Amino acid sequence: MAIYLIRHAHAGSRSTWRGDDYQRPLSERGRDQSEHVLKVLGDEPIVRVFSSPARRCIETVEPLATHLGLKVKRLVELGEGADPFEAIAVLREQGDRDVALCSHGDLIPKVIRRLIGAGMRTRDANISQKGSIWVLGTDQGTITKARYVPPGPSPSSR
Fold first, then answer.
1. Lowest CB count within 10 Å: 16, 41, 70, 82, which one?
2. Is 112 buried (19+), middle (13-18) or exposed (0-12) by CB count in 10 A?
3. In Å, how far are 17, 88, 94, 101 from 63, measured between CA atoms?
């Protein structure tokens, strides 16, 4: 079983966005990255999709959820600035179900660092590029290993 921890896709510049940052949408590049997430995970047996309440996170996983016939459940525990221990509790609550969760670049490295400290194995550097995916392997409800999947190619590199 796997937990797919997704960093939200590109959403443009925070400094040029006028209004509530939680309402900042994906950019064109971000929409391409969300399609890459769908391409990578669309055939996985995912049974639930969770997201930070931020629009950019929801928009990152909406194509995947729609493809799988699921709804995106918003969780404040995945929000920007959230407590990493609360986010890890959400991950652990999933047991041995395949689930996808979308969060932010400040939270994901903290979660990965704490999981490594608790014994999770990985050969990958603790990074979290926009549109990337951490594939967390579980065994009887325990997160035991992780693999990093970088974001898809930008339109200019195709």
1. 16
2. buried
3. 24, 25, 21, 13
Which has the closest alpha carbon to 57: 19, 30, 36?
A: 30
CA-wise closest residue to 91 among 105, 108, 67: 108
Residue from 17, 21, 15 nearest 56 by CA? 21
pLDDT digits (tens, 9 = 90+) for 126-152: 989 999 999 999 988 889 999 999 998
The helix (H) or strand (E) run that includes residue 27 is none
User: Is-contact 118 142, C-beta < 8 A?
Assistant: no
Question: How many residues can be counted in the chain?
Answer: 158
How far apart, in whole angstroms, are the C-alpha atoms of residue 133 and residue 106? Answer: 14
pLDDT by residue (tens digit) across 60-116?
999 999 999 999 999 999 999 999 999 999 999 987 799 999 999 999 999 999 999
Cβ 67 vs Cβ 42: under 8 Å:
yes
What's the number of CA atoms in the CB half-sphere (13 Å) around residue 148? 18
